[in-house]
Design brief:
- There is one protein chain.
- The chain is about 85% helix and about 0% strand.
- By secondary structure, the chain is mainly alpha-helical.
- It has one domain.
- Helix 1 packs antiparallel against helix 5, helix 1 crosses helix 7 and helix 2 runs parallel beside helix 5.
- The longest helix has about 35 residues.
- It is flat, with a radius of gyration of 20 Å.
- The protein starts with a helix and ends with a helix.
Length: about 250
C-alpha cells in the first residue's frame, strides 16, 4: 500500500536524520581539531560496517516477520524504543527537560578533542576512534529504526531508501556548512519519530497477539493520530501545571 510505504520511508528518513545530526556534530568537531581525513575515514568505516549489517540482517528478517512470535518481539522492541523517544519529547516540550542543543554538544566535543594528545602523523587514532564510535552507535539506533519499520510494512526497500536519502543529504550539508546543524528542528523530529515508532510498535504487538485490526495496516496511521492528540494533551496539561507551580512559588517568595 503506497500510503504506508511512504509513511515508512518518511519515518526512516526522520529517524536516520535525527541520529546522524548528532553524529555529524561530533564528526565536525573532530574534523576541525584533528583533521578532516581522520574524521571522515572513521565515519565512513562505520557506515560501511552498518551497511553490511543492514544487508545481512534486514533481508532474512523480512521472510519471518509474519510469524506471530517474531512480530511480537519486533513490536515490543519498537514500542519500548518509541515510547522512550516520545517520553523525552513530551518532557522537553513541557519544559520539564532541557531541549537538546547541538551547538552546546559541539563546543563540548571541541574541548574534549583539544585536550587529548595528537598523533604525530597520518590518521589520528583518537579522532578516528571518536568518529567511528559515534557514527556506529548512532547508526545502530538508525538501523534498528530502518529494519523494524521495513519489517512492519513488509517493504524494506522504502525504509532503506528513506535512510539513504537522509544520510546523503546530511553528509552533503555537513561538508558544505562545516558547522553544527543548529537550524534543524531536531527536537520536533524526535517527537514525530517517537510517535511513528510507538504506532508501529503498538500495531505489531497487536499482530503478535492476533488482534484483528480494523483497516488492517492502515490502523498504524490511526494509532499515530491518536498518539499525537494524546501527546498534545499531556504537553498542554504539564505546561499548565508547571506554570501554576511557578506562579505559586513566586507568590510565596514575594
Amino acid at each position: 500500500m503506497l500510503a504506508l510505504d511512504l509513511y515508512s520511508a518518511f519515518a526512516s528518513f526522520l529517524g536516520t536524520s535525527v541520529e546522524f545530526v548528532e553524529a555529524l556534530t561530533i564528526i565536525l568537531a573532530v574534523g576541525v581539531t584533528r583533521g578532516w581525513k581522520t574524521a571522515l575515514t572513521g565515519a565512513f568505516t562505520a557506515i560501511v560496517i552498518l551497511a553490511v549489517l543492514v544487508a545481512g540482517i534486514g533481508a532474512p528478517l523480512v521472510q519471518v516477520i509474519k510469524t506471530p512470535w517474531v512480530a511480537l518481539i519486533v513490536g515490543l522492541f519498537m514500542l519500548l524504543f518509541g515510547i522512550r523517544w516520545l517520553r523525552k519529547a513530551i518532557l522537553r516540550y513541557s519544559g520539564l527537560k532541557a531541549l537538546h542543543d547541538e551547538s552546546e554538544s559541539y563546543e563540548e566535543e571541541l574541548e574534549r578533542q583539544k585536550q587529548a594528545g595528537r598523533t604525530s602523523s597520518g590518521i589520528d587514532k583518537f579522532g578516528f576512534a571518536t568518529t567511528l564510535g559515534v557514527t556506529f552507535l548512532e547508526g545502530l539506533e538508525a538501523i534498528f529504526i530502518v529494519i523494524t519499520i521495513g519489517l512492519s510494512t513488509s517493504n524494506m526497500t522504502f525504509s532503506i531508501a528513506g535512510a539513504v536519502v537522509a544520510t546523503i543529504i546530511l553528509l552533503i550539508v555537513g561538508v558544505l556548512l562545516r558547522s553544527p546543524l543548529t537550524k534543524v528542528p531536531e527536537n520536533t523530529m524526535k517527537f514525530i519519530v517517537g510517535v511513528m515508532l510507538t504506532s508501529f510498535g503498538g500495531f505489531w504487538v497487536g499482530e503478535g497477539l492476533h488482534v484483528n485490526w480494523p483497516q488492517k495496516d492502515l490502523s498504524i496511521l490511526y494509532i499515530a493520530a491518536s498518539l499525537l492528540v494524546l501527546s498534545w494533551i499531556l504537553v498542554s496539561r504539564s505546561k499548565a501545571r508547571l506554570a501554576t507551580r511557578q506562579h505559586q512559588s513566586t507568590s510565596m517568595g514575594a
